[in-house]
Specification:
about 300 residues, alpha/beta, Rossmann fold, 8 helices, about 30% helix, globular
Length: about 300
């Protein structure tokens, strides 16, 4: 059996006590793994530590306990093997859209010729629909949706092994968000990149991800469930809502966030255990043949 691409073990973040108070344990004993090429979303209420987990994955923060292994090596500090797209775009304001992407590509591939760097950068801007002169504008001359397209193009252009998305569409209007979600899915599906994304939008998570990790409320939050999105790809936002599995998954997510995330908060009995795998989309008598235990077994023949 192949090892997971990313293994998170015993990950805990605590902040020191202030002026005689107790130390704050944001989350503890996070234990989960991510397969290569998988698209994973993580959802939880504010204060549960989602962004802290992402910052640790990015190498921008350090855990109090535990660690992360990616591709057989422990994560320690930032690396171009990990690309990050933040909600606030994080573009260099004095550079054009094209030069923002070129900046990242040049750092990633210092041995490439100038012409190759430019061609590669333009290719990814075209992928996100930034052409016709928009690529030469500075961030202040672009709309919010366009700036986020530049961030996504830059992140994909450096071809990171892991792409980290911190609520990248949260500040966008619904129409722009839908368009960029579709472009993100299209680019990701044609790559081998692994994606870990924070979102508060359950519909977005169902549309984009292979699995959704659910966190209990903080403090002492934990990753309680791993929900499998068992809906075939490619997914169309207009068609997915007609799938029976869609509402089963959505109802499970909403029920967890509205009720069980608080009920399970601070439950230390399951500390250190990996999240429970849940498949609400096939939890139905009509879908028994799709359940893992009812699938045909592979028989290995000794040579």
């Amino acid at each position: 059996m192949l090892k997971p691409f990313i293994e998170i073990t015993g990950l805990t973040k605590r902040f020191p006590a202030q002026k005689g108070g107790e130390q704050l344990t944001v989350f503890e004993n996070a234990n989960f793994s991510i397969k290569k090429g998988e698209f994973v979303c993580i959802i939880g209420h504010s204060g549960c530590g989602k962004s802290t987990i992402m910052n640790i994955l990015a190498g921008l923060d350090t855990p109090t306990e535990g660690g992360i292994i990616m591709g057989g090596k422990e994560i320690s500090g930032p690396s171009l093997d990990r690309g990050v797209v933040f909600q606030n775009y994080s573009l260099l304001p004095w550079l054009s859209a094209l030069k923002n992407v070129i900046f990242g590509v040049s750092a990633r591939y210092p041995d490439w010729s100038r012409s190759k760097v430019i061609e590669h950068s333009q290719k990814y801007l075209e992928m996100v629909g930034l052409t016709g002169g928009a690529e030469h504008r500075k961030p202040a001359q672009l709309s919010g949706g366009m700036r986020q397209r530049v961030s996504i193009a830059r992140a994909f252009a450096i071809r990171p092994k892991l792409l980290l998305l911190d609520e990248p569409f949260g500040a966008l209007d619904a129409l722009t968000r839908g368009t960029i979600q579709d472009e993100l899915t299209r680019i990701w599906s044609g790559s081998e990149q692994t994606v870990f994304m924070i979102t508060h939008d359950v519909d977005e998570a169902i549309l984009l991800s292979d699995r959704i990790l659910l966190m209990t409320n903080g403090p002492h939050a934990r990753v309680a469930e791993s929900v499998v999105v068992d809906i075939p790809r490619p997914r169309d936002r207009a068609e997915i809502i007609h799938k029976p599995a869609y509402y089963k998954i959505r109802n499970h997510l909403v029920e967890f966030l509205a009720r069980r995330s608080k009920q399970l908060s601070g439950d230390r009995d399951h500390g250190g255990s990996p999240p429970i795998t849940v498949r609400p989309g096939i939890d139905d008598a009509d879908d028994k043949e799709r359940r893992p235990e009812n699938r045909p077994k592979l028989v290995s023949v000794a040579s």
